[in-house]
Structure formats: structure tokens, C-alpha cells
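USER: Write out one fold?

ASSISTANT:
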Amino acid sequence: MKNCFVLLSLLMGFACSVSAQSLTGRWKTIDDETGRVKSVVEISERDGQFFGAVVELFRLPEEDQDPHCDKCSDDRKDQRVLGMDIVRNMEAEDGEWDEGTICDPKNGKVYGCKMFFENGEPDVLKVRGYWGFIYRTQEWIRQ
């Protein structure tokens, strides 16, 4: 009986450590230029790929409180930013997520995307949008 309890404890600990490394959940996006929290993105898995939708916006009083992606040129054109999938088709690969895209609703551009946990820290997600060799990296904080 004691051995069963030890085994169960080990399995539960393993399950918790695996879920801590999960990409899914709600993430506060931090603007890499201002350091301000801009939104909350909820990342979910669909058919083995990961998608991120904006579920909350933190707007300054002088900003449009219900922005639309009027500069987007794909299917997101004129879509409300709130509820929009800004992250699409991310695939897990060796503890990172890659091969997907991220849309910046502010300028309507779609970039290649890579996501990873730096130094194994499961509550700080590095989100890198890139175009060729040019990239920007933001930190998203698990909510």
C-alpha cells in the first residue's frame, strides 16, 4: 500500500511538471517598447496546433476602446481585435513552438512566430515575431 502511495505521488508530481510547461492558458502581453500590459491572449490547442485569441484589452483613455484590424489584409480585415486569433498554427517542437504566425493588429502585418520558455521558466513566455532575419521578442506572463 505504501508503494502505491509513493508511485501515485510521483505520477502526480510528473503530471504537474508537464502541465506547468504547457503553452495553453491565458497570457498577459507586455509591450516590449513601453513595458505596459496591452492585452490577455488565451492560447488553446486545436488538432495538434496552437492558436491565441485576444480575450481582454487594456486601452488608455485616449485609445479606441473597441479597435478593429482595419490594416489587416487577410481574413482578419476589419475584424474586432477582441476575440481575434492573433496567433495561428503553432506547432510544438523540442520544447518550443514554431511554424506558425502572429498578427500585429496595430499595423495589420503577419509575421512568422516562435515561442519558448527561457531558462525553463513556465510562467514567462518569450514570443518572437520575425520577418526574415529581423525580429522582435516580447515577454508574455502567465495569468
Remarks:
- The beta strands are 25-30, 37-46, 49-57, 85-93, 96-104, 109-117, 124-131, 134-142.
- The domain at 22-142 is CATH 2.40.128.520 (Lipocalin).
